[in-house]
Amino acid sequence: MTTHPSAVQPAVKILRFIRRGEVVNLGNVPPGRTVLELLREDLGCTGTKEGCGEGDCGACTVVLGQIEGDALRFRAINSCIRLAHSIDGMALWTVEDIAAEDGALHPAQQAMVQCHASQCGFCTPGFVMSLFGMYQNYVAPTLATACASLPPEGALRLRPGEAGSAAPAGEDAEDSPTSATFQPITRALAKEELSGNLCRCTGYRPILDAAQMMGSLPPATLDQDTLLSKLELLAQAGYAQEVDSAYKLPYTLADLLKDRAAHPTAQLVAGCTDVGLWVTKQQRQFGEILDLTQVEELRHIEDQPGHLLIGAAVTLADAFAALVKGRPQLHNFASRFAGLPVRNSGTLGGNVANGSPIGDSMPLLIALNAEVVLMSERGRREMPLEQLYTGYRQTVMAADEVLAWIRVPKPGSPLPELLRVYKISKRYDDDISAVCLAINLHIGQGVVARASIGAGGVAATPVRAANTEAFLTGQPWTLDTVRQAMNVLRAEFAPISDMRASSAYRTEVLGKLLERYWLESQGMQQINLASFVLEDTV
User: Fold this and answer.
1) What is the pLDDT of residues 375-416, one digit of tens each?
2) When you count CB atoms within 10 A of the terminal residue's CB, does the N or C end of the chain come out lower?
3) In 3-state terms, the chain is what percent helix, strand and coil (to 5)?
4) Any residues with CB less than 8 A from the CB of 289 and at least 6 apart, and which?
5) Which CATH class is domain 23-227?
């Protein structure tokens, strides 16, 4: 619910973050101010560019550093849709911050120069910052082992099991920056990491070359120990800071529930990737904002017997990495969900609570029979995820409730699950779905023992295809069954026509996706763009 500023508003707390190794303290920053506005208009840092204003092009990319465990985690994010107060207590790097004091370019910059990777140059700052994030997560950890003597001062040091950068979708945990063994930046990794940055001059090949070149250039290091100390001091100050302000950033679940009960009309945010659009595109203003992304209890994924318990403040990147670890077939879908800067900011809890009918995580979670846990000072309640929604962007949550966790069952049936998720969009990468269909069947001895199907883009809410599930259950898994099920699925929903697709197209596609699922279950693979590898050309 939108609340408009009144004549007398609560005071806005001091915004504190670290930039260029120094603590920055800013007062009177409105709750709806974005990081991009803060940089360009308040601090005069115009190196960060404004392109689309909606997290699509990546021109505004900056990198955030945050303590996770006892290590530093780096994330490239879109500053245009990230609210400024949400970076309180973090470290911030812009394209103007990464060169050495003597003017020597950072490897991310030098590689762009040597590979002739900048054309018109408008997108270049965003690409450089995405490369900087890659450097810190994949190259910097290798510096400790690349030197014969002691590691360079401030080189990122992570040990197995420590918090760090999540493994790219489809890679094992042993190959991620959380491990003692680090892999070079491959072409495939570079493409995934740069998926949120668009080049209108079609200069992707030299930019990908630059990503792979960074590790061969003279190293750049951070004084990580000093930075961690300063971040810890900021965190301690944050706990003690006055919380009665227009932008509330609680650190504990108890404080979050207390704030929610006291301020039921405050706009709840958990990553801002959608609310940020309301600010930039709809010019909406909020008198009070309640941000749950710093709540410690909600920032973790718990591997429990039989299921994963994913906190509402876990980023989409980390949540999908955890899901892919147990179900590698989700790799392609996870990487197509959005560009990495969006997945680094957005949260799974925010995507689910938002309730958008074209949110891609919900069809998958419905097909996995996920449940949500709602919390308030009055207690907790749990329900299947699809029962959370009552209408377009409407949920059963009371004014004092928040979505705290998503419980996702692990693969555990005696019968193997055949899980596929299909995303249909006008643009293959970094686009919103016209239709999203997740199908999860358990087939034994040629008969469908269990069926679970989630759909998006075909109704006012993310939905379960209950009629199709009921039809399939107990039926022989044959082409005739599939053809009948296609008709049931098409009849189950009455999608609308909009800018992304017509009603007729969506209805037709639903059936065709079920047919594709059948063909893939029979071993056919060359019917999906994900199966094709485009050869790089010079």
Assistant:
1) 999 999 999 999 999 999 999 999 999 999 999 999 987 888
2) C
3) 35, 20, 45
4) 31, 32, 83, 85, 246, 247, 248, 266, 267, 268, 269
5) alpha beta
The whole-angstrom separation of Cα 119 and Cα 97 is 22
Q: What's the pTM?
A: 0.88
The type of residue at 330 is L
Query: Which CATH architecture fits 299-531?
Result: 2-Layer Sandwich (3.30)
Q: Is the pLDDT of residue 146 over 80?
A: no
Average per-residue pLDDT for the chain: 87
Any idea of the CA torsion for 115, 121, 122, 123, to the nearest 10 degrees?
0
Residues 6+ apart with CB under 8 A from 324: 169, 170, 330, 331, 334
Structure tokens at 193: 């990491």
Question: Alpha helix locations (H) across 388-502?
Answer: 466-472, 479-492
**What tens digit of pLDDT does each residue of 39-83 get?**
999 999 999 999 999 898 999 999 999 998 888 999 999 999 999
Spatial contact of 65 and 227, defined as CB atoms under 8 Å apart: yes
Write the single-letter amino acid at 285: Q
Residue type for position 264: P
State the average pLDDT over residues 244-253. Answer: 89
